[in-house]
Amino acid sequence: MHAWGVYADPLRAVVSAWKDVGRRDLVGVLAPLLAASVSGAVVGAGWVEGAVLVVPAPSSGRAVRARGDTPLVALCEASLAQLADRAGPTLRVAPALRHVRRVADQSGLGTGERRGNLSGAVAVKPLWHNVIRDRRCVLVDDVVTTGATLAEAARALRAAGAQGVVAATMAATQRTRG
After folding, report:
1. Distance CA 56, CA 70 (A)
2. Backbone torsion region of residue 108, taken as left when φ is above 0, otherwise alpha when ψ lies between -120 and 50, otherwise beta
3. pLDDT in tens, 25-54
């Protein structure tokens, strides 16, 4: 899993404004960060040629209705535009995942609760199965907190026959032990 930075201010404030307040004008600030993370994930996986699908984590239907869009898909597209001239595999955005049942809002849930909340909740959209099968995928989310979303989405991609799955985010929360 590759993350550009720690989920702390000022990055936290920018991600929150982009995602929760509708500041889509911040894509220009965030796209280079996600592009660097996606590039790091691809290089780290040793994928130097061929095709790689960049798969955004799915938004819940409730979130799409509330926001009126799927901001992560647009951010993935802007990030890949920044990587268009670099050497390496061809990258394509593939919004192939969906929720197959209702999930609770993850904020405020602990690690075990998040895993339980998401268990079996994500699947590859039927029309995307043939695209995903035997492909390498970079799974993208904005922030990784416990890893539950990425784990469930990776499970869904593997179940659909993805050849390899790595993850990239803009930010990761700092974990403390105690």
Report:
1. 10
2. left
3. 999 999 999 999 999 999 999 999 999 999
Residue 82's Cα: distance from chain center in Å?
17
| Inter-axis angle of helices 11-20 and 27-45, nearest 10 | 110
Half-sphere exposure in the Cβ direction for 62 (13 Å, CA): 7
CB neighbours (10 Å) of residue 49?
A: 9
Say which residue the tokens 């405020």 belong to.
Answer: 108
Name the least confident of 26-35, 78-87, 105-114, 150-159: 105-114
Comparing CA positions, the residue from 97, 149, 101, 161 lying closest to residue 123 is 97
One-letter amino acid of 101: R
Q: Phi and psi dihedrals of 176, rounded to 5?
A: -115, 150
Token pair for 126: 């039927």
As a whole number of angstroms, the distance between CA 156 and CA 56 comes to 13
Amino acid of residue 57: A
CB 53 within 8 A of CB 42: no
In the chain, the largest separation of any two C-alpha atoms, in whole Å, equals: 45
pTM for this one? 0.87
How far is the C-alpha of 154 from the C-alpha of 17, rounded, in Å? 27
